[in-house]
Each structure stands twice: as structure tokens, then as C-alpha cells.
Amino acid sequence: MTDLETADPQVLRTAMTDQLVREGTILSTRVEAAFRTVAREAFAPEADLRRAYAAHDAVSTKVNEHGISISSVSAPDVQARMLEQAGIESGMRVCEVGSGGYNAALMAELVGPDGSVVTIDIDPDVTGRARTLLDAAGYDHVQVVLADAENGLTDAGTVDRTIVTVGAWDIPPAWTDQLAEGGRLVVPLRMRGLTRSVAFDRDGDRLVSRSAEVCGFVTMQGEGKHQERLLLVRGKEIGLRFDDGWPADPDALNGVFDTDRVETWTGVTVAPAEPIKGMQMWLASALDDFCLMSVDPDLDTGLVAPQNKRANITLLDGNSLAYLAIRRTEAGAEFGVHGYGPNAKAVADSLVRELQTWDRDYRQAEPVIYAYPASTPEADLPAGRVITKRHRRIVISWPHEGQANKSTTIEKEK
What we know:
By secondary structure, the protein is an alpha+beta fold. It has three domains: about 5-220, Rossmann fold, CATH 3.40.50; about 230-360; about 370-410, no CATH class. It is about 25% helix and about 30% strand. The chain contains nine helices and 20 strands. The strands form three sheets. It has an eleven-stranded mixed sheet. A seven-stranded antiparallel sheet has the order 10-11-13-14-15-16-12. A two-stranded antiparallel sheet has the order 1-2. Strand 18 (about 385-390) and strand 19 form a beta hairpin. Helix 8 packs across helix 9. It is globular, with a radius of gyration of 22 Å. It starts with 8 loop residues before the first helix and ends with a strand. The model is unreliable at about 400-414 (pLDDT under 50).
């Protein structure tokens, strides 16, 4: 019997932690010790032991009327990565937005007896569950608060670290007003439909990223909720998802998939298991009329062959579009582009050029992500893609070599 087949929680906890260390997700001895100490099964009673300790699996704890998860115990690898990003030290005051119990317990281990942890959630079912499980596991000193985190914590004082464990479209002032100068906010921030766990350091009234990791979370509720818009372009089979903006004439895309497909292959290749998060962020920041394509798995006729059928990078041009495709090669895979509509070749060529630019100039690069107050004038922002939200102007700024030194602005959805 292997470690992962046993029903002994201590053995499973050790095996899970060993896996996260091997995979390079856990990097520090402090985070490793916290994972070896906290009993994850105590915070995931909805799952059997093996599922509770699956390194890459979240455990859903509440669903809405449509069966969609609205609260969960995040996957261990995601929690470990965010804790490493946060760099929590002994004696710190830390805050968690989005309560599950397990992550707060890990944070309590990291701050030790001289630190403090407060976890906040808008849902009384979630906070009640977290309070009960934390008490039962011996973490009764963790403060659990029922409130909308959009407005911050009353009389909480300053905190050294805030970790947000729900998907956020914006960064409300309350999250930084209570953050100490030089403090750190780790937040799964949605930018043009792509979510990255961004570790921001506070620098006056702006935030500057230290790292950004691919992640996925249930979305924010309350005042901070932001719903993406969906344009169905072939019955309910194919939809185009817009996080910001909307086509000037959405009806122009009617029948776009009834036209002949144009295929172009880029010569841009990727090795098996090679990370490509930088490519997605480059395309999202370089392309103006950008959206994500989704294909309903229950209605999929095989008409389109996107690289990712859940959320695929797509470029629009009036009555035409092009999307990212992929094909297998002996060395791994090659990226290509499929175009549809009267201007299929032109829009496909535009997407191809940006893919090749990423491959040539930015393949080994990552952007710096800034968050400024929404009132910041364009002239005071660094070069890059500017996304104006309700509270913040997010700037995705790449190294300047090979990049035009100007800002491109996306205004917030009205």
C-alpha cells in the first residue's frame, strides 16, 4: 500500500507535504512546518481523507442554486503558493479575506503566539463553519468576522499581510488603507479575464507586484462582485467572454463560424509541461479587442478546435475573429491560429504577430503589475496596458526592450 492509499491522516499529510516540496510549490521550512502540523481533514469534513489531502484539489463546501461552488477549501498547492508569496513572519498581524478555516490555521502557525490572524467573510454560513472548525482544531485565538470585506475591518488597526482567497476583479481602498507601509497584499486578481495570484507590496498610494502565479478561485460576492459578460455566437455551443468592454456591434459576429476557417501555424513551440503563463498575459496586454472563448462541453460539435475550450484567447475584428490553437509535434506542441469571417486572414495574422513577438522578446519575461488609485492621471502611470476599474488603474508593464513606450487604456465597463 502506498502513502496515498492509506487512511491514516498523518501519513496522508506527510505525503501531501512531501509532494508539494518535491514539486517546488513549498519553498520555505516555515511553510513546510505549517503544512505538516495543521490537520487538513479537520477543515474538510465534506471529503474523504484521500480527497482532502489531494495536493491539487479544492474541496467545495457550499454551492448556489445552480450547483456552482461559492465557497471551498482551496487546493493545497494554491494555498502553499500564496503563503510563500506572502512571506508571513512570526509575530505579524495578518488578515484573510474569504474564510474556510484551514488557511487561517496555516497562517496562525506562521505568525506564532506573538502574532494575530483575522479572517473575514460575507456569508454567515461560511463564518459559522470556520468558527466551529477552528475552535475544534485548537485555533480559537483566530478571529472570525462576518462582514463585507469590500469595506475592510472596523478597528482592526494596521496589518502586515493580507491574503485574499476569493477571486477579485478590483482592489478596494480598504484592503490597502489598513496595510502597513511596505506591507504585502496577495490577491487573485482578474485582469482581462485572466486570474493571477499577485503579491503586491505597498509603496505609498500604489501597489507594486513582486510575483504573479496562475490560479483559480470562486468569485467575490457583495459590493466587490463583478460579472463578466457572455456573447453567444453559435447557439449555446460557443460563447465569447468579456471581462472588460463589449463589441461595438455584437450582431456583426452572427454566422461568423459559417465561413471557411483560415489556419496559420506560428513556429512557436512549447515543450511538455513548460509553463506558458507569460504568453497569456502578454496577449491579454498586447491585444485591444481581446476576449476569451468557451465551448460548452455538452454541446460541442467539434466545429472549433481552440487550445483551451474553457477559456481560450481570442481576438476580434468587427465581423471576424481568430483564436489560439495548438497541435502536437515530436518535441511537444506548436501554437497556431484559426480565423473566421470576411477578414479571417488579417485578424489571424495580427494574433500570429503577437505570439511571435512574445516568443522573440518576452518568452523569459514576466510583467510588473501596478495598482494605482483610479483617479491617477494617465501621464503619471508607467508604460503598459492600463485597465481602469472602479477603485484602481491596473498597469501591466513589460520590459521596454522591443516594446513601444506608450500606454494603452481600457476604460471600465459602464
